[in-house]
């Protein structure tokens, strides 16, 4: 997209729709869906406090992000990290109800929250310390949904003095639940962490990626920018806006202590476009201004942000559209 807006930085503008017809491809059926062997899925890391969940997550994704939108692309979840390895994209999500910090008791009331937050992940990573299992571990385990693949991650392997203890311990664990896999590892050991991707891959459904390949790896600021804009978008449009609108970063340039970001909010219908722009463009201005302020704080630099709204009917179903938005 080569928008060269006349407007000054930060002033949200409306992009012309002239590409819409062309992208829709005119006559003919939309192309049949084909993930081309790609996989993408949601994963949750659960476990009692102090077993090493954050250590593992940070090692898996390289950097932690925090997204507060109620309507992130993956429905109810707060995404804590994304990592794409070859043809597979791993999306790690938070599980409300497992906020067990400061020794908060896990009680029955949390049960429902936990179950619903885990109901649409593809695989659960249940983490314990190798050769240990206490009542808090048991409580967490008892909250996991019955019909969901659960992988047992036995962390802190480096701290196990007698490796021979592992065999009876693993046997006892298998009696507690029919785990899909046992993975003894050390979250502090990079080679163990990298090995985990190959083990997890078969649990991701074959489908196209939710995010760009470089999300949260070498260009994570770009990913963060699209998430922050999306968060403001949903926050300021309330429940009016359907989930399937997206934010595409068209430009992300750094000049010293300044970042120039141009982004398009892509919606399916004209009505949605109107909703986002608001009377006199007020709403879009606010989305832009709030996103810019937050990005400046997060990135610790000055940010010029240009926002556009575009209508792409059926974009989410069309491979061609996805390609044109850089999803390939
Ligand atoms: N020896 C050893 N220590 C580890 C390993 N992984 C994590 N730790 C340590 O275990 C402690 C807890 O790690 P965290 O990653 O904060 O644990 P957590 O499960 O996220 O804890 P909460 O945030 O309280 O739920 C830290 O001191 C880590 O350094 C490991 O593989 N080996």
From TrEMBL:
Instruction: Using the record's annotation, list all stretches that form the KH type-2 domain.
Output: 229-313
Membrane topology term: Peripheral membrane protein
Q: What is its main location?
A: cytoplasm
Renumbered to this chain, region (G4) spans 155-158
Q: Which GO terms describe its cellular component?
A: cytosol; plasma membrane
Entry keyword RNA-binding: yes
Stretches for region G5: 185-187
Q: Which cellular compartments is it found in?
A: Cytoplasm; Cell membrane
According to the record, the residues making up region (G1) are 47-54
**Annotated segments matching region Disordered:** 1-35
- Recorded GO MF terms: GTP binding; GTPase activity; ribosomal small subunit binding; small ribosomal subunit rRNA binding
Q: Does the keyword Calcium apply?
A: no
Q: Name one GO biological process term.
A: ribosomal small subunit assembly
The record's InterPro entries line, in alphabetical order, gives: G_ERA_dom, GTP-bd, GTPase_Era-like, KH_dom-like_a/b, KH_dom_type_2, KH_sf_prok-type, P-loop_NTPase, Small_GTP-bd
Q: Which UniProt keywords apply?
A: Cell membrane, Cytoplasm, GTP-binding, Membrane, Nucleotide-binding, Ribosome biogenesis, RNA-binding, rRNA-binding
Q: Where does GTP bind?
A: 47-54, 94-98, 155-158
Q: Which residues lie within the region annotated G2?
A: 73-77
The Era-type G domain covers which part of the protein?
A: 39-206
**What role does it play?**
An essential GTPase that binds both GDP and GTP, with rapid nucleotide exchange. Plays a role in 16S rRNA processing and 30S ribosomal subunit biogenesis and possibly also in cell cycle regulation and energy metabolism.
Task: Give the UniProt family note.
Answer: Belongs to the TRAFAC class TrmE-Era-EngA-EngB-Septin-like GTPase superfamily. Era GTPase family.
Give the quaternary structure. Answer: Monomer.
Mind telling me which PANTHER family this protein's record contains? GTPASE ERA (PTHR42698), GTPASE ERA, MITOCHONDRIAL (PTHR42698:SF1)
Q: What protein is this chain from?
A: GTPase Era
Species source reads Roseateles toxinivorans
């Amino acid at each position: 997209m080569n928008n060269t807006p006349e407007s000054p930085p930060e002033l949200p503008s409306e992009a012309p729709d002239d590409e819409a017809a062309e992208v829709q491809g005119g006559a003919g059926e939309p192309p049949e869906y084909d993930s081309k062997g790609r996989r993408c899925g949601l994963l949750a890391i659960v476990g009692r406090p102090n077993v090493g969940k954050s250590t593992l997550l940070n090692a898996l994704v390289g950097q932690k992000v925090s997204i507060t939108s109620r309507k992130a692309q993956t429905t109810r979840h707060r995404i804590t990290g994304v990592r794409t390895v070859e043809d597979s994209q791993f999306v790690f999500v938070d599980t409300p109800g497992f906020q067990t910090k400061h020794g908060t008791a896990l009680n029955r009331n949390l049960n429902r929250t936990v179950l619903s937050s885990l109901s649409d992940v593809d695989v659960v990573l249940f983490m314990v310390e190798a050769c240990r299992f206490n009542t808090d571990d048991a409580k967490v385990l008892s909250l996991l949904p019955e019909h969901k693949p659960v992988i047992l991650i036995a962390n802190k392997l480096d701290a196990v003095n007698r490796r021979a203890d592992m065999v009876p311990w693993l046997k006892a664990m298998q009696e507690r639940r029919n785990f899909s896999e046992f993975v003894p590892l050390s979250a502090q050991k990079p080679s163990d962490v990298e090995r985990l991707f190959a083990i997890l891959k078969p649990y991701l459904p074959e489908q196209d990626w939710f995010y760009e390949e470089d999300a949260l790896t070498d260009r994570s600021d770009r990913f963060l920018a699209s998430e922050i804009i999306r968060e403001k978008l949903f926050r300021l449009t309330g429940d009016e806006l359907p989930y399937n609108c997206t934010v595409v970063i068209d430009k992300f340039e750094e000049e010293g202590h300044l970042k120039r970001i141009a982004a398009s909010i892509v919606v399916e219908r004209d009505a949605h476009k109107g909703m986002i722009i608001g009377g006199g463009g007020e709403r879009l201005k606010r989305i832009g201004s709030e996103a810019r302020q937050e990005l400046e704080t997060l990135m610790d630099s000055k940010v010029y942000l240009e926002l556009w709204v575009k209508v792409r009917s059926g974009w989410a179903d069309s491979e061609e559209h996805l390609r044109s938005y850089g999803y390939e």
